[in-house]
Amino acid sequence: MEQPKGFVNSNFPDYVCKLTKSLCGLKQAPRAWFMRLSQTLLEFGFLSSPMDASLFVYHKGNIHLFILIYVDDILVTSTDPSLIQSLIKKLQTEFKMKDHGPLGYFLGIQASRDSFGLHLRQYKYIGDLLHQTKMAGAKPASSPCTTGLKLSVHVAKLVLRYLKGTIDLGLWYTKGEQTLQAFCDSDWAGNPNDRRSTTGYGVFFGSCLILWTAKKQSVVARSSTEAEYKALTITTAELYLLRMLLKELHISLPTAPTIWCDNNGALALASYHVFHARTKHIEVDFHFIREKVANRDISLQFIGSYDQTAYIITKGLSLAPFCLLRD
C-alpha cells in the first residue's frame, strides 16, 4: 500500500508499505476475514456446507446449529437456544462482536415473529428508495406493469408507485407440510432486440415462497415448447440444489419435488425422450431434466395458465389476474 499521509519517509518517498496483516478497505480484506472466521468455526466443530459456502452446520444427535454469514454479519439459529449463547461466548473470545438479539433487520429486510410464524417485509428499504428518487409523494399504483408496456422512465416510476402502494406487503413463513414444489413459465421471443425468451419460476416450501427469479435465456428458442422446456430444466437444477441443501439441514421430503408447467409439449419432451427436427438442436445440458424425471427425483405436472403462479414473473398482466396471482 502507499505510505500514509504524515508517515511518508522523505528519504524514500516512492517506497510502499508491505502489509503483514489484512486491512479493512483492501480488496482482499473480505476474503481474509472470511477465511479467518471459517477456520475458527471449523475448529469449533462446524462443517462448511458444499451447497453454500456461507453456511456452516453443526449436528450432534437431535441438536442442530446453523450459522449463515454475510461479510461481518452473522445469523445463528439452533434447536437448542442455550447452544446459541454458548457459541456467542466462544466467538467473543476470538473476535470483537456485538449480540443484537433476535433477528429484526438483515440485508434490507425487516423480520417480525408472532404466534403464526415469521413475517418478512422491506418497508424501510422501500421508504429510503422512494426518498432517494423523490417519489415519496407520488400517487400509489395498483400494478407495476400492464400488458403492452415498453421500458421507459414512465415504467420505472410506475414500479416505484407500486412499491409505495404495497410497502406493507411481505412474505409469511408458517409451519406446514415439508414439501417442495415449483411453478415455472417462459414467454417466447419476448425481447424485441434479440428475440430471446425469459424464464421465470417460483419455488415453495410447503405454502411458503422461498425462491424466485426471472432471467433471459442464453440462446434464442425456436418455439414456445423449446422455451418452456429450457425453463423446466433450469428450474429442475434449482430444485435439485435445494433438495440437497434441505438434506444437509436434516429436513427430509416425503415426496419428490414437483414442477408445475402449463405447456404440454415441454412436459412430453421432458418425460418421453421425444426427438424430432424441431428439438434435436437443443443443447445437451438442457436434457439434464430427463435423467431426473426417469429417476423420479422430480415430478412434472400440468397446470392451466390462469393458475400458473410463475405467469406473474414472465408476463405483463392486467390488474385482476395480477392481484389474483400475487395474493
TrEMBL record:
Q: What Pfam families does its record include? A: RVT_2 (PF07727)
SUPFAM superfamilies in UniProt: DNA/RNA polymerases
Q: Which residues form the Reverse transcriptase Ty1/copia-type domain?
A: 1-145
PANTHER family assigned: GAG-POL-RELATED RETROTRANSPOSON, RNA-DIRECTED DNA POLYMERASE
| Protein name, UniProt field | Reverse transcriptase Ty1/copia-type domain-containing protein
| Source organism of this protein record | Juglans regia (English walnut)
